[in-house]
Write a structure and sequence with these properties.
- The protein is mostly beta strands and 187 residues long.
- The protein has two domains: 7-105, no CATH class; 113-186, Roll (10 Kd Chaperonin, Protein Cpn10, Chain O), CATH 2.30.33.
- Helices cover 3% and strands 45% of the residues.
- A hairpin with a 2-residue loop joins β15 and β16.
- It is globular.
Length: 187
């Protein structure tokens, strides 16, 4: 099965939500809210690529997707529905605007105009900072092709524009998904 325009994918582990935690051999539900986007599964496995697609993503690769891809929502009558990406069973149609990174050969790579920056702890200062992470500064972890061509590499300390952070958990590490044009300087 192939789509002319969409990647067909399924959620990793077959679950739409990552809302359980194993404690002492038992699974506990940590959130029962379908509206809480922080518990949406953000990883998908590619089942098929679009017809005529010649890019770097292939069947079996992982995608880091938008939180609304797998979420349920309630319509005006309160009935549970799947979002516009739902195809059938546990398959979803994902367009290029709905995913931000892909993983093949055990390495994540930023896709299109996105990059991923790891926030850093607050740095020493003579002024007291009542925050745990340094604002607007982080370490570039997954630059895209454009940033690489501009000399910004993995491990570089960078600054970014206010309100550009979109939090993700990438293999247990908190990161911000940021558009490449929102990276303001290499520090």
């Amino acid at each position: 099965m192939k789509s002319p325009f969409y990647f067909i994918a399924q959620p990793i582990n077959g679950k739409r939500y990552n809302n359980t935690k194993e404690i002492g051999g038992l699974d506990f539900i940590t959130s029962s809210s379908e509206e809480d986007h922080s518990y949406s599964n953000r990883e998908a496995e590619v089942i098929s690529t679009p017809l005529g697609y010649n890019g770097p993503i292939s069947k079996g690769d992982k995608l880091l997707v938008h939180h609304n891809v797998f979420k349920f929502y309630n319509d005006m009558q309160g009935r549970q529905k799947s979002g516009r990406s739902f195809l059938k069973d546990n398959l979803f149609m994902i367009d290029s605007e709905q995913f931000f990174m892909y993983k093949n050969d055990e390495e994540w790579k930023a896709y299109d105009r996105y990059c991923f920056v790891e926030p850093i702890d607050t740095e020493g200062s003579y002024l007291y900072k009542n925050i745990s992470k340094e604002p607007l500064v982080g370490i570039m972890r997954y630059p895209n092709e454009y940033l690489l061509s501009e000399g910004i590499n993995e491990g570089d300390k960078v600054s970014f524009t206010p309100e550009s952070e979109y939090k993700f958990d990438v293999e247990g590490v908190e990161m911000y998904r940021i558009y490449d044009h929102q990276i303001t300087m290499k520090l």
